[in-house]
Amino acid sequence: MHKTLLAFSLAALLAGCNDASNDSKAPTPNPGEHAYEFLTQLSSGAEGIGARPTGTASETEAANWIADKLTGWGYDVTRQPFSYQKKGVEMHSQNLIVTLPGKSDKLIIVGAHYDSTGEQKGSEGATDNGAGVAAMLAVAETLKGQTLPYTVRLVFFGAEENGINGAKAYAASLSADEVGATLAMVNNDTIAGGDILYVHSAHSDVAEYNCADPSRYSHDPKVRDRLLALSRQGDMTPFELHPAFPGYPAGETGAWSDHASFACLGIPVAYLEATNFTINGADGYDGYSQSTNPALWDCYDATTKSACDRESETQWGKIWHTQYDRLDKLQEIFPGRVQQQLSDGTTLLIRFLREPGLE
Ligand SMILES: [Zn+2]
């Protein structure tokens, strides 16, 4: 089903390219194609920056590259430096923030972390989380100069992989008035690569999020549900809610990424993620196995949707934080998939910011 959809979308994309090349007029900018160009420049070591391990000069290089892109489109970029502790050592990073004007002062925050893991040989952080950053850049480029229904802040977080530090620092910097004005936060983390596109809400059990003030916590699913509905309006792959698994009702996620700090402030959040919750992975149906593709398994058993031998399996269909999280490998294993999913994510964010439908 999914592969058929993908093949169809690719054919449509190719047909679109031919039309554009035969057209004497300037081609309409395609946000999805631009997003893939940005992803290549950010995550390919051969063609751009490559891996951006948290706390390294490459992380700073990525921040500067993002800021240059945004400045080039006419945005005022705010740099928010912050520090955090790692094993007793003070570390430094920064968030980058731009504001898109809205008819209303009410705020929507859209975020993605730009750092990547560095421990795993070969990972270039293409899907985790070059893809989220690339989609947000394409959104910024597409919506420049436009006035949206609500004021939008695009926030590029540093130091996620070391403890979600950028999002924590940004959330802590918001005034009570800003928090009160914020209608939604959308987190983009690993929005391409895995088999199925999901949108999650925060968890209905506040205990999952370890908030400093649990009384403020919001798990309102309205942002998730709006994104889900918008993805079903055609011209893109529909997103899904993950099925329930032990400890996690359908469509609800844990506190392990940048959305968590915002849910703790009482802001309704949504989290876009490409993975596969139908696989019985190392710890069950938890979404940590991203794909059924046999190339990502020592041995995959399609009848049980699990490893042939659960004792000896070492790969478990995982992409993030592995040697497979790089565009050259992903293109080899899943031709055209990252382009399509990145285009879907970008399209969905643009639709949402133009028609938030939240009040
Ligand atoms: Zn991530």
Automatic annotation (TrEMBL):
Secretion signal, residue range per the UniProt entry: 1-20
SUPFAM superfamilies: Zn-dependent exopeptidases
Keyword field: Signal
Keyword Signal in annotation: yes
Peptidase M28 domain: residues covered: 95-339
GO molecular function: metalloexopeptidase activity
Stored Pfam families: Peptidase_M28
GO biological process: proteolysis
Record protein name field: Zn-dependent exopeptidase M28
Protein's organism: Aeromonas simiae
